[in-house]
Fold this protein.
Amino acid sequence: MKTKIESIFHQKFEGQPLIVRSPGRINIIGEHVDYNGGYVLPAAIDKYIYVAIDKRNDGIIGLYSVNFDVKIEIEINNLKPSNDFSTYVFGVVDQVIKRGYSISGFNIVIYGDIPVGAGLSSSAALESAVAFAINEIYQLGISKLELVSIAQSAESIFAGVNCGVMDMFASIYGQKDFAIKLDCNSLQFEYMPLVLDGYSLVLFNSNVKHSLASSAYNIRRSQCEAGLNRIKQFLPNVNTFRDVTESHLIEYILPFDKEIFTRCLYVVKEIQRLNDACQHLANGNLQALGQLLYATHDGLSLEYEVSCFELDFLIDEVKGNSNVLGARMMGGGFGGCTINIIKDEAISELIDSLKVNYLKTTGLHLEVIKVQTVNGTEIVV
Ligand code: GLA
């Protein structure tokens, strides 16, 4: 891959580029709680955004996307959001400049094998790769944690999705064979060994693109904020959803707004599920972990309402199968992938029949992605 992207860089631009790659992510459990003060359990996976980058001194960004075959040249002082991938690059540059770092332009070639719109955080991987790469070529001395913050702000301020911190954190801090138990309040984290003896993590990409997701995402976020703010009026000691119980919700939210109640109920239950899941993972109790994944899916589908017919179908199809310990939709929702813990010997037979049933029922092709965990954003040597 290094040779390929380097040679494309030489076709499009002059100079000798630095190659950086940043991975996509999965999340074992803890969905839609990163912006609700919870914990999450993501891991970086072997699907990447690669960038080849070199400085320039004339205040211009030259950008070429291999996937979209698009070349853009733009002044660094005149960056505006758009509907395409360039927004994520410019969003990062905008943040770097706003934070007082001085840069004078660059040429960049981008290539990725993370399926777009599949809930694997291709945009966070792109933002993380660009932030990391600019930091390297300009020797800005930005810490890893600030790179995460730059990438997150690029997404929320420039791209307009008021996302949590999980995706960038996983992309930058990922470690092979580990999931990251991340406290999204304090950003303290610990690496948890992802030992799944005899089982594998398999993603089923519904091939439904989650295009409606960003507006629905922002709505979920404000509903939860409204719920939490209301509870705080009655219980001033409550800081985050971690301090909230189901009885608080019944007492203070249910009489006020049923929909907000249901959203908040999901959050409170998911925060608890994550804690239980980490214990099961640490004790090697994969059966119990799997059951929690199914419970999370029910919550995302019925309470948080971010699933869709195709994702629910994929879960229903595997739920009664004793070779599948657990499964759920993953990421923002409204499309993208399900994550499944499947017994190794059973994978190929299961895939064969699921592909047929999925096509018959939805008219869509199922993409199967077996994932391995990998290290986070790094220079490719
Ligand atoms: C998207 C967001 C994340 C997180 C997930 C849901 O991937 O970017 O911050 O909120 O949805 O868990």
